């Protein structure tokens, strides 16, 4: 298969990149100084595209590659791939479901604990030498310009009401973990699930009103873009916590910043942002917020399994075998 040309959209995993280079003829899209000329020159040879949650296959890219047969995504999310155009052109699409579920769910619980128990602030307190001057206070106040912000107190996690937007693979895994902390679980989805006893709410606002912690775990679609808006944040309230391990555009980011700065929201744990890697600078000074650089699935073990799944799907396709995780 070393004559088959594969286009890798961006750097995403060194093991995956090395294996693609070994098994196929690999082009690295991000290294091309003039990408338009590059595509025009190689349009008739590129048969596969490998993308991820940040760079996939737009309609323009798909149209520019008449020999394209498959898009294999190094992620679960498909919002960076024009699925309709792929179907129209007969281009196969695969992703990496299931294999990252546990790590993402683990991190969601970690964010809840970090925000509620102020773990990052406690670590900073010890490292700074402040502990020698006195015990860590459970409540603090911070100042942003002329605006005073009351930071979330150190609170227990056990028993908190957890509301989950999207009870798919990851949402269900989060729920199962939270149940071990005696947390009541409720959820919002397009429809009520028959195979669960968790409380269902037919609107996100209603879910937020009945939750201490609201977790975003649904797929990003036009319908779920800004599914967490001002109304939802106000329903969650000044003692509520938002956890986002989904996608940045799920949340209206300016409204989130305002709610946190104004004290209308108690805290947030964020692994994703609307315009990554750009993060609103107003969040940097807030002690009631934990910020991560989109690393929910970022363990060595999971990333290798994801890479092997991408490779396996490509090899299956070009060997005329059934795809391992077909989407289209």
UniProtKB/TrEMBL annotation:
Signal peptide: none annotated. InterPro entries: D-isomer_2-hydroxyacid_DH, D-isomer_2_OHA_DH_cat_dom, D-isomer_DH_NAD-bd, NAD(P)-bd_dom_sf. GO terms for cellular component: cytosol. Keywords: NAD, NADP, Oxidoreductase. Residues 11-327 form the D-isomer specific 2-hydroxyacid dehydrogenase catalytic domain. Residues 109-296 form the D-isomer specific 2-hydroxyacid dehydrogenase NAD-binding domain. Pfam families: 2-Hacid_dh, 2-Hacid_dh_C. GO terms for molecular function: glyoxylate reductase (NADPH) activity; hydroxypyruvate reductase [NAD(P)H] activity; NAD binding. SUPFAM superfamilies: Formate/glycerate dehydrogenase catalytic domain-like, NAD(P)-binding Rossmann-fold domains. Belongs to the D-isomer specific 2-hydroxyacid dehydrogenase family. This is Glyoxylate reductase.
């Amino acid at each position: 298969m070393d004559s088959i040309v594969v286009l890798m959209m961006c750097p995403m995993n060194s093991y995956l990149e090395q294996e693609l280079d070994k098994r196929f003829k690999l082009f690295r899209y991000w290294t091309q100084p003039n990408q338009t000329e590059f595509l025009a020159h190689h349009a008739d040879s590129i048969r596969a595209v490998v993308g991820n949650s940040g760079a996939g296959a737009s309609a323009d890219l798909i149209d520019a590659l008449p020999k394209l047969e498959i898009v294999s995504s190094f992620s679960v999310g498909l919002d960076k791939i024009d699925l309709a155009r792929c179907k129209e052109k007969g281009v196969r699409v695969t992703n990496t479901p299931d294999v990252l579920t546990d790590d993402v769910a683990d991190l969601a619980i970690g964010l809840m604990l970090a925000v509620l128990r102020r773990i990052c602030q406690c670590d900073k307190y010890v490292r700074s030498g402040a502990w020698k001057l006195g015990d860590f206070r459970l409540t603090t106040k911070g100042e942003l310009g002329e605006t005073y912000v009351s930071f979330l107190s150190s609170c227990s996690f056990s028993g908190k009401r957890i509301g989950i937007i999207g009870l798919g693979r990851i949402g269900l895994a989060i729920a199962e973990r939270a149940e071990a902390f005696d947390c009541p679980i409720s959820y919002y989805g397009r429809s009520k699930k028959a195979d669960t006893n968790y409380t269902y709410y037919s609107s996100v606002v209603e879910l937020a009103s009945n939750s201490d912690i609201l977790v975003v775990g649904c797929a990003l679609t036009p319908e779920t873009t800004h599914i967490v808006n001002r109304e939802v944040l106000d329903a969650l309230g000044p003692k509520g916590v938002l956890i986002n391990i989904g996608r940045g555009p799920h949340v209206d980011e300016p409204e989130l910043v305002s709610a946190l700065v104004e004290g209308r929201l108690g805290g947030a744990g964020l692994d994703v942002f609307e315009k990554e890697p750009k993060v609103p600078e107003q969040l940097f000074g807030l002690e009631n917020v934990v910020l991560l650089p989109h690393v929910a699935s970022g363990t060595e073990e999971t990333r290798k399994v994801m890479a092997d799944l991408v490779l396996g799907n490509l090899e299956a396709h070009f060997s005329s075998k059934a795809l391992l995780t077909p989407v289209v």
